[in-house]
Amino acid sequence: MDCIHACPSDALSMPDSGKVKAIGKVWLEQDACLNTDGIFCDTCVMYCPSDVQAIKMKDNFPSLDEEACVGCGLCVYYCEATPKALHWYPPEKVVSSPA
Ligand code: SF4
Ligand code: SF4
After folding, report:
1. pTM of this structure
2. Which domains does the chain have, with CATH numbers?
3. Atom 8 of ligand 1, nearest CA residue
4. What residue owns the CA closest to ligand 1's atom 4?
5. Which of 57, 79, 87 to mutate to test the pocket of ligand 2 (most atoms within 8 A of CB)?
6. What are the DSSP calls for the chain, one per residue?
7. What gap in Å lies between CA 90 and CA 61, rounded to an integer?
8. What's the rounded Cα separation, in Å, for the pair 78 and 99?
């Protein structure tokens, strides 16, 4: 995880299990994604941490692996769409179809 490498005071460390506990999840509103309008975009894929790779391009659309997502929110922050096509929600609200 990039935050572990970037932290200047070594306050963060990787769990021995090698797995990071999710601090949230995201959901993708495909209709709001720029690719729906034929504008190619893969910015969210580029920002998803390489250790996680929870979002990948599939058939010219971002495809989200909810299980792998750790909820860092980078894809939401950098989403190019206005309004954003990715939405963060806290782990206690993890359901199959968040409102
Ligand atoms: S919140 Fe977005 S960037 Fe972070 S792990 Fe989940 S899909 Fe990847
Ligand atoms: S960054 Fe936003 S607009 Fe771009 S592909 Fe990802 S969800 Fe779609």
Report:
1. 0.84
2. 22-93 (3.30.70.20)
3. 48
4. 72
5. 79
6. -HHHHH-TT------TTS-PPPS-EEEE-GGGSGGGGT----HHHHHS-TTT--EEEETTEEEE-TTT-----HHHHH--SSS-SEEEE-GGG--SS--
7. 24
8. 22
What is the per-residue pLDDT across 40-66, written as a single tens digit (0 to 9) for each?
A: 999 999 999 877 899 999 999 999 999
Q: Report yes or no: 86 and 79 within 8 Å, Cβ to Cβ.
A: yes
Write the burial class of residue 83 (CB in 10 Å: 0-12 exposed, 13-18 middle, 19+ buried): exposed
